[in-house]
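Inputs:
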Amino acid sequence: MTDRAQFIRQLPKAELHMHLEGSIEPQMMLSLAERNGMTLRWQTADALRSAYEFSNLQDFLNLYFEGCKVLVQQQDFYDITRAYLRRCAADNVLHAEMFIGPQSFTERGVTIRALMDGVLGAVDDARREDGVSSGLLISAHRHRTEADAFALLDSIAPWQDRVAGVGMGGPEVGNPPSKFVNFFAECKRRGFKTSIHAGEEGPAAYVREAVELLDVDRIDHGNAALSDPSLVELLRARAIPLTVCPLSNLRLKGVSSLTEHPLREMLQKGLFATVNSDDPPYFGGYVNENLIEVQRSLDLGRDDIVTLAKNSFRAAFIDEADKARYLSLIDQYVKQNAHF
Ligand code: ADE
Ligand code: ZN
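Outputs:
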C-alpha cells in the first residue's frame, strides 16, 4: 500500500451517500435468495459480479431493482445494514448516512415495520458493538408519482425521530426535481433534512431546480452543475454540499476515465464536495477505494484529502457538537501523520 493510500484508509471520515440495497455483496445476495426460497439468474458470486457492467444509470437500476427482491424479512434488512456498518468500522468511517428506498419492498408486500425494525436494529447494534454512528435516509423513487412519495412519507411517520433525512433517487432524466415540489415542501414542514440526486445524468438545470424550487440541504452527485457558472456560484455562496461518487460516475459512464472526473474542478471552485461510494459492490469500491482512486487519478494533494474528510462531517445531518468532535479527531490524526 502506498503511504497516501494508508493515510486515506486510516483517516477518520463520514460517508453520506450510499444505498443499503446497493451494498449487498454477491455472496450475501446468493445467501439471501436461498434463505427466501428464490432462484437467481446467477449460481455463483463470480457469475453475479461479472454482470456488473453497465452502460448507463438505467442499465444499472434494472439490476439493482432485481437485486432488491432478495430482501423480504426483517432479518434480511438487519443483515445487510449490519454488514455495511461492519465495513465502516474497518474502514475508519466513523459516521454513515444510509439511503433505503422502501417503495421497492412495500410494493411486494414487505411491511414498512419489517424494513425499519431491521435497519434500525442494526444501527443500534453497530453503535453499541463497534462505536459506529449512523443515520437512516428514506429515499423516494422519482419515476413514481408525487402521490406515491407522499404515501411513503406518511408510512414512516411512526419513525420520524429515527430518520435522519429524506432523499430521492431513480432514473433522473425525464423526472426533474420540479415534479416533487409539494413533496419536498411537506418533508421540510415535517422537519426532515432533505437531499435529491441531481446532475448525475440530468442537466445543470435539474441541479438549479433542486436548489431553487426544493431548497434541499444537500445535492447527491451534482456533477452537471459545473457547466453553469452562475449555478456554481450559487452552490458555493450557499455552501450546499455535493455528495460526489467517483467510481459510480465511472461505472455508469458519466465520465470515461477518473482522470476526467470533475472533483478537482469542484474543489478548485470552492464547492462543498464530499466523496462517497453510492452502491459499493456494483461499482467496485467502498469510500476508501473511491478516495484512493480519485486521489491518484486527479493527483489530489494531502490537503484536498483532508478537506474532503472534513467536508464529510461538516455536511452530515448531525449536531454541531458532534461535528466539532469529529473535526478535532481529523486535526489530531493529521498532526500525528505529518510524514505522509
Ligand atoms: N439508486 C441507487 N443508486 C443510484 C444512483 N446512482 N442514481 C440514482 N438512483 C440510485
Ligand atoms: Zn445514489
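Remarks. The radius of gyration is 19 Å. The chain has one domain: 3-336.
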